[in-house]
Amino acid sequence: MGDYPKALSYYEKALEIKQQSLPPNHPNLASSYNNIGMVHYNMGDYPKALSYYEKALEIQQQSLPPNHPDLASSYNNIGMVHHNMDDYPKALLSHEKALAIRQQSLPPHHPNLAHSHNNIGLVHDNLGDYPKALSYHEKALEIKQQSFPPNHPDLAASYSNIGLVYY
């Protein structure tokens, strides 16, 4: 519905309850921090989003195995915030961590691997390293071609990203 203030209010209430009933490093707390970060991200408040995403990651690092997909999602979220704040070196580092975890924990043609390759490609494009950007976008497309039907919108996004690099 796009009512971010209302979503934020409910997510904050959920967090309050979880903080009272769960240990401080419980993964469900990380989930609440992630949800609040997502709302701030969608409202364009990137510093606040980053703060909540980092809290989620900190809890996940304490409570989950190092190759858990939720860690990859947190690194991905942090990378997206850094990208939107034009901090490309930090974005690249976060996206590379997400990719490394996903390569260990997901099957080789999982769509989340494609998303990681895509995000790394976008950062390299912003850094002006077009050969690297192209390589990552082509890998993302290859994975998507094996994961999705030929008319899936994610394939169109990959073709557009490759076109952007050539442009």
Automatic annotation (TrEMBL):
Native source organism of the sequence: Adineta steineri
Name this protein carries in UniProt: Kinesin light chain
Cellular location of this protein? Cytoplasm, Cytoskeleton
Give the PROSITE patterns listed for this entry. Answer: TPR, TPR_REGION
Which superkingdom? Eukaryota
* Family listed: Belongs to the kinesin light chain family.
The UniProt entry annotates TPR repeats at: 30-63, 72-105, 114-147
User: What InterPro entries is this protein classified in?
Assistant: TPR-like_helical_dom_sf (IPR011990), TPR_rpt (IPR019734)
One Pfam family linked to the record: TPR_10
